[in-house]
Amino acid sequence: MNMMNRMKHDRVTLAHGGGGKAMRDLIEDVFTSVFQPESMEDQARLMTDALLEKGARLAFTTDSFVVDPVEFPGGDIGKIAVCGTVNDLAVGGATPLWLSAAFIIEEGTEVALLRRIVASMKAEADKAGIHIVTGDTKVVGRGSADKVFVTTSGVGVIPAGRELCASNIQAGDVAIVNGVLGDHGAAILAARGDMALSADIVSDCQGLGHLMAAVAEACPDLRAARDATRGGLASSLNEMAEAAGLAIEIEESLLPIRTEVKGMCEILGLDPLYLANEGTLVLFVPEAQAEAALEAMRSTDAGRGAVVIGRAKSGEAGRVTMRTLFGGARIVDMLVGEQLPRIC
Fold first, then answer.
1. Are 206 and 83 spatial neighbours (Cβ–Cβ below 8 Å)?
2. Which of 35, 224, 249, 254 is 20–30 Å from 324 (CA)?
3. At 59, is the secondary structure helix, strand, or coil?
4. What is the architecture, at CATH level 2, of domain 166-331?
5. Tell me: the pLDDT tens digits for 200-214?
């Protein structure tokens, strides 16, 4: 039987979570017809030759996504779920291979919306070279969720000899970002329409697996990388400085922030250093390999805007400072609380 077009409703009902024919129609028509898993067993069965290499290790990560609105300029909850999980694997030096996806769906959600989300996930997974191999759906009553929540888990393989972690960072290492900062947080804020803001800002949501592969190939002494998601660049740098037992200094004049994002932050009293990103990372390499890293990053679509923003230095462990445009310095603390909830 053709699995497509079996849905008899244009909105999800509680029956679609009841375990019967309606649920099977939802799963097969909307999800598995697009993701095309190898089997419909209760588990995915996985194997790759990369695991046969002596010293290779599995990398495993999981994340939940509750972004509001579920569709926004530059992406949707499906795209961000795939990209976010791919990026968590990639910044650890892993090649992303497999993904699971679980959906909490609110009764009354449009089936057309689910189809758009699933199509977006499939497109991003194909782009990243990762396969969505297993998943789950649950339907909850009206008001118990907000349209759809997505939880993804990802598995990748770290090749032998690759060990990326913040504790590897050494004094003198250079900090590099792959592109502009704060676009995702600003795009979500504008899309909500709560403050009647008019801004042509698109989320930076994108996968970073190919970029990380290029940098790892070009820079044998790549120290560490973090994707600057919730808490933004500031929080990522604080975490890395603390783990390394070093200080980090960045230059305000070098930070790639769009004029529109700066303007929005000035109006609302926000700091772009703490705005979330969904396709931006910061990495550290020895100064001697900085040019090689920049060239490798700029050879990829996700890294064309790569720039050096600062360096690690000896000093108070965990201290992050920014050299301002006026020649002074200010401390860049870890984010306290939440500037903007439900951004991913």
1. yes
2. 224
3. strand
4. Alpha-Beta Complex (3.90)
5. 899 999 999 999 999
Confidence label for 2 from pLDDT (cuts 50, 70 and 90): very low
Alpha-carbon distance of 218 to 127, in angstroms, equals 22
Give the other-Cβ count within 10 Å of 39's Cβ: 10
- Among residues 168, 4, 163, 153, the alpha carbon closest in space to that of 93 is found at 163
Q: Where are the alpha helices (DSSP H) in 196-330?
A: 209-218, 232-244, 259-268, 290-298
Q: Per-residue DSSP letters for 97-136?
A: EEEEEEEEEETT-BHHHHHHHHHHHHHHHHHHT-EEEEEE
Residues in the chain: 344
Of the candidates 82, 96, 101, which has an alpha carbon nearest to the alpha carbon of residue 30?
101
Q: What is the DSSP letter of 11?
A: B
Would you tell me how many other CB atoms lie within 10 Å of the CB of residue 166? Answer: 21
Would you state the structure tokens that stand for residue 283, as one six-digit string? 């990495």
pLDDT at 1: 39
Cα–Cα nearest to 170, from 290, 306, 284: 284
CATH architecture of residue range(s) 14-158: 2-Layer Sandwich (3.30)
